[in-house]
UniProtKB/TrEMBL annotation:
PANTHER family: GLYCYLPEPTIDE N-TETRADECANOYLTRANSFERASE (PTHR11377:SF5), N-MYRISTOYL TRANSFERASE (PTHR11377)
Sequence segments annotated as region (Disordered): 1-29
Stored SUPFAM superfamilies: Acyl-CoA N-acyltransferases (Nat)
Catalysis performed (reactions): N-terminal glycyl-[protein] + tetradecanoyl-CoA = N-tetradecanoylglycyl-[protein] + CoA + H(+)
Similarity remark: Belongs to the NMT family.
Keyword terms: Acyltransferase, Transferase
Enzyme kind, highest EC tier: transferase
Protein name per the record: Glycylpeptide N-tetradecanoyltransferase
Gene Ontology molecular function: any one: glycylpeptide N-tetradecanoyltransferase activity
Comp. bias regions, Polar residues: 11-28
Length: 432
């Protein structure tokens, strides 16, 4: 498997320059098949993925295949007990994300080597607090946080993780691993470490009697369950234009652009406030009820909501609407913080980006709720607010002046077949 072949787990940080909006509502089988075929001919085909229990290109559009697991579980006694072999100069390590020292090592590897945009202008810069949040949800397995060290220098040169999740597919709740943060040091990209790392995390997941996984990639590999688009809303347009994230529109001046994206100082919705610990049960009920309508979504309980959605400074922000009359919690919105390093700018080193997470509207119109989210993000000095076109997000994107980015995010399930490619609006799952 070459570098085109490995899942990056996250989309590249994308800019909204050089873009013409397209209607993304229809994903045709033909175009997906063509995309996969093109990517297959780019490299030496996806030899690795063709050996894995994932949807295959040849099966696209075959509605006779049953939905559900592609391969039955192996008896646990038959799961390989020893780690896969690495090249002799490297060794496996299990990463203790409670340890400040280990967290620093992981942070340094990702900061210098993780996902960049195509022009090498921006690179994700996950904070240590974010990594600890992302990797230690309820019931997490430390053994699923896997590093590779060079024996001689003791430097960490590669990383991959899994965390447990309950994912509902239609009516079935499946225990899965969410696989993320696959990162190989730039100088070792030719060593073919990525397939071994994927096999090793799969082995460790199997040892916990879990046989399915969910992951995302910025590239096409066999075979996405849906293809989503990132949209970007300028909060600090001057900075975004200065660093090359976006560009001045035709016949637009900087002052007109700043005016175009200006937001009110105050939120508009009565009862709009920050989520607090005592709100967890109400938010859980609201979210569970909302997510039922999607084909694929997480099955959150109160422990999950407490972990993933209670506000954490510089990690995740959540707001809700409490009816001033009845004190009922009627609406909810959230976003997480994922800055990017700016490579090569004279004036700026970091781009502060908010990513739309889970949003539920029952009484407040979703567009109004999300405009309030934009206002609080601007108040917190975010430069840009990003959102995928999943769930009902498409209904507010254009009205709130989001522009389509130039990157796609492909969602995948491992060892679980969904008979047809989903529309983004049928997906109720956001992976970090």
């Amino acid at each position: 498997m070459d570098d085109n072949d490995k899942p990056t787990e996250n989309p590249k940080p994308t800019s909204d320059a050089n873009i013409t909006p397209k209607n993304e509502s229809e994903i045709s089988m033909d175009s997906l098949a063509r995309k996969v075929q093109e990517s297959l001919s780019l490299a030496k085909r996806h030899k690795f993925w063709e050996t894995q229990p994932v949807g295959q290109l040849k099966d696209l559009g075959d509605t006779n295949l049953p939905e559900g697991p592609i391969e039955a579980p192996t008896p646990l006694s038959e799961v390989k007990q020893e780690p896969y072999n690495l090249p002799s100069q490297y060794e496996w390590i299990t990463c203790d994300m409670d340890s400040e020292e280990m967290c620093n090592e992981v942070y340094n590897l990702l900061t210098s080597n993780y996902v960049e945009d195509d022009e090498n202008m921006f690179r994700f810069n996950y904070s240590k607090e974010f990594l600890q949040w992302a990797l230690r949800p309820p019931g997490y397995f430390r053994s699923w946080h896997i590093g590779v060290r060079a024996k001689s220098s003791k430097r960490m040169v590669a990383f991959i993780t899994g965390v447990p999740a309950r994912i509902r597919v239609r009516e079935t709740i499946v225990n899965m691993a969410e696989i993320n943060f696959l990162c190989v040091h730039k100088k070792l990209r030719s060593k073919r470490l990525a397939p071994v790392m994927i096999k090793e995390v799969t082995r460790r997941v199997h040892l916990e009697n879990i046989w399915q996984a969910a992951y995302t990639a910025g590239v096409v590999i066999p075979t996405p369950i849906t293809i989503c688009q990132y949209w970007h809303r300028s909060l600090n347009p001057k900075k975004l234009i200065d660093v090359g994230f976006s560009r001045l529109g035709a016949r637009m001046t900087m002052s007109r652009t700043i005016k175009l994206y200006k937001l009110p100082d105050q939120t508009a919705t009565p009862g709009f406030r920050k989520m607090e610990p005592h709100d967890v049960p109400a938010v859980t009920r609201l979210l569970r009820n909302y997510l039922r309508q999607f084909v694929v979504s997480p099955d959150f309980d109160e422990n999950d909501v407490e972990h993933w959605l209670l506000p954490k400074e510089n990690v995740v922000d959540s707001f809700l609407v409490e009816s001033p009359e009845t004190h009922e919690i009627t609406d909810f919105c959230s976003f997480y913080t994922l800055p990017s390093s700016i490579l090569g700018s004279q004036n700026y080193t970091a781009l502060k980006a908010a990513y739309s997470y889970y949003n539920v509207s029952t009484k407040t119109p979703l567009t109004q709720l999300m405009n309030d989210a934009l206002i609080v993000a601007k108040r917190k000095d975010f430069d840009v607010f990003n959102a995928l076109d999943v769930m009902h997000n498409e209904t507010f994107l254009k009205e709130l002046k989001f522009g389509p980015g130039d990157g796609k995010l492909h969602y995948y399930l491992y060892n679980y077949r969904i008979r047809r490619v989903l529309q983004p609006s049928e997906l109720g799952l956001v992976l970090l």
